[in-house]
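COURSE: Structural Biology Practicum
ASSIGNMENT: Worksheet 4, Part C
STUDENT ID: 0417
INSTRUCTIONS: Below are two proteins. For each, the amino acid sequence is given first, followed by its structure token string. Answer the questions at the end about the second protein only.

PROTEIN I
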Amino acid sequence: MTKAESGRPRAVVCLSGGMDSCVCAALAARDYEVYAVHFSYGQRTEARELRSAQEIARLVGVRELLPLKIDLFRRIGGSALTDHAIAVPEASANEAPVNESSTGSESRTGSESRTGSEIPVTYVPFRNAHFLSAAVSWAEVLGAKTVFIGAVEQDSSGYPDCRPAYYDAFNQLIRMGTKDGQIRVETPLIAMRKKEIVRLGVELGAPFHVSWSCYSGETEACGVCESCVLRLRAFREAGAVDPIPYAVASKLH
């Protein structure tokens, strides 16, 4: 069955609890009966992110939230988010928003479109493939034809699993590897600037006040990690106030 009793089609949303997934869930909830999946994978802010996902799910009207725990990333390490031997770096003062040159152009691609010259240590190796595999599996059981994920390429950290080509390839994998091949991963935010995502969230009434983006803080957002800096900058450029508490109001945004 692909439609709920309400007559709306079902969709699965990957709900991290962050700003982008919050907007993505609110967007999906307009047209779909939403089933959200959240992943605890040993990240530093695991408990805080789960609470955020639970609150977002409640506030946007998610039909069911499926929290999953994955121990793989904690065990293999290799990322500052899951390996406590690797420090979460502060965003450097010379980091410009992704895909934004000194002239304001947004046409840069590849390694030039990242906030730094290399993929940052906060990258979790091939993480989104694991998340999407679980989401697609659940979608197949639910009869849902759409999986949403709030991946963003513009103004982001330059993670390789947040690029359009990655999702094109994953959709081909789904076509080849599922029963009827009709499930599709949708990335409605991927080409948007962060400030545009904030504005869309405000328009949708997305519950930003319960979302969480910080890589290290659980009571207050640190305000200095790259995720915090990108978020603070986005709210400022959108002319909106970020409603979550910060330990440090970063000067870098």
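PROTEIN II
(use this one for the questions)
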Amino acid sequence: MRGRVQLGHAQTPAHEAASARFQIRAARAPECRLKVIAVDARSRAPVPGAKVVVHPYHALTNAEGIAELRVPKGAYRLFVSGRDRFPFRSDGEIDSDVTIHAELDEDFGPSDAELWS
């Protein structure tokens, strides 16, 4: 009686037939360590909590402004962004462990004069 539920004398299937659609995105196995050090462009102070993305891999910087990702060899596009900061972008090739210093400029937003002019 595998896959069936018996109710009294009648037998009914345990589940109705069903189908589902889904997608899988495969990524190559990570081979290299990418270390990102995010700092304020003016003061050189660490930027904690910055988002670091090398799609599909992502991390946040720690209190020292450091994040580490394991990524596959080859071409990459790195984005580093933080609250009230202009994003940093770096494109390149990676074939071994590397450290990238991301300098993030503060985004002060428009001034009152800019908004009302």
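ANSWER KEY EXCERPT:
Q1: The beta strands are 4-7, 10-13, 32-40, 51-54, 57-60, 66-71, 74-81, 88-94, 98-104.
Q2: The mean pLDDT is 88.
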